[in-house]
Amino acid sequence: MFYWLYLTFASTEYVPVLNLLKYQTTRTGLAIVTAQFVVVALGSRFIRWMKAKQGKGQPIRTDGIERHVLEKSGTPTMGGVMILAGLFAGVLLWADLTNVYVWAVLLVTAGYGVLGFLDDYAKVTKQSTAGISGRVRLVLEAAIAMAAIALIILFAAKPPESPELLTSVTFPIFKQYFVDLSWGYLLFGAFVIVGAANAVNFTDGLDGLATVPVMIAAAAYGLIAYLVGNYVFSTYLQLHFVPGVGELAVFCGALLGAGLGFLWYNAPPAKIFMGDTGSLALGGAVGTIAVATRHEIVLAIIGGLFVAELLSVVIQVAWFKRTGRRIFLMAPIHHHFEKLGWSESTVVIRFWIVSIMLALLGLATLKLR
């Protein structure tokens, strides 16, 4: 909205303060502050309201960590609503709303947020850890992801040097090598987005565990979007130039600010859980940004923690079905370390450290060309 005001006034008269709004860096900073303020302002009242509405709060797995049943019972869920409120406020106020990439990421974020909300609602009302059907949810997630990717392919500006880039898979380190999948990219992109959403969903099992790694990934991809969307920087670093994608830096800023605001209430001991409303939406957003910037494979590095959490569940289930035995003491893997005797805060902080190291490693691929 404010970017539109800048364009409106710039066409008639010069206003020095509004002139700052043409810079993505300025609007990214303002999006961070706006999103954080909205979430913190909503916090206490929203949490009290959710406690009153939900009663017993989010159901806790009885076959999981025993102390969780005692310590976390009664904690409300659906805190993702707070995150999305701050995120959307930051984006709608400061981003260029004529940019197709912004709307594509908003589509996935909102769509996955609704799916997550319905899942959380089913769990709370039934007081069961089983929400809506997993298969139904995956089909809907894939459909939303493909709709967003189609939006980008059809309406985004084509890179001048390689128009086929919008349907291609690029690879870190190899500067010129990419594979054009044509419309088959819909399936690949959907796999990345759905995988990212569910990986973050599995990670969200301890207070603050998913929040900070998502913020770290958002910061990393905010930098990537800014560099890839800038012709000078992308040429210098020998990256594929994607016109218009730099505007997603503002989205990443809003996501970072919303995460900071939510962490105020989600830090151990959490006053509210983000639930599937938040984890699916945030994971889907990060996955869509990775697709939009054509750094999908780098997501496996920057989001390596999420990949490990997802794989631990897949491996555990597959191995148990085949042999009747478990590889991990409990999956996802953060519960495995709790079973080994690590305290919750130890697991969370060490996983944060791992996320920072992986994000730095992922960013290092930008120079290794």
Radius of gyration: 20 Å
Shape: globular
**SS-derived structural category:** mainly alpha
Helix and strand succession?
HHHHHHHEEHHHHHHHHH
Query: Unreliable segments (pLDDT under 50, ≥5 consecutive)?
Result: none
Termini separation: 38 Å
Fraction of residues in helix: 55-70%
Mean pLDDT: 89
Q: How are the strands of the largest sheet arranged? A: 1-2
How is this structure best summarized?
With 369 residues, the protein is an all-alpha fold. It is 68% helix and 2% strand. Helix 3 (24-54) packs antiparallel against helix 5, helix 9 packs parallel to helix 12 (275-292) and helix 9 (211-228) packs parallel to helix 16 (344-364).
Topology:
Layout: H1 2-10, H2 16-19, H3 24-54, H4 66-72, H5 80-94, H6 100-126, H7 134-155, E1 168-170, E2 178-180, H8 185-203, H9 211-228, H10 231-236, H11 248-266, H12 275-292, H13 296-302, H14 304-323, H15 333-339, H16 344-364
Antiparallel strand pairs: 1-2
Helix pairs in contact: 3-5, 3-11, 5-6, 5-11, 5-12, 6-7, 6-12, 7-8, 7-12, 8-12, 8-14, 9-11, 9-12, 9-16, 12-13, 13-14, 13-16
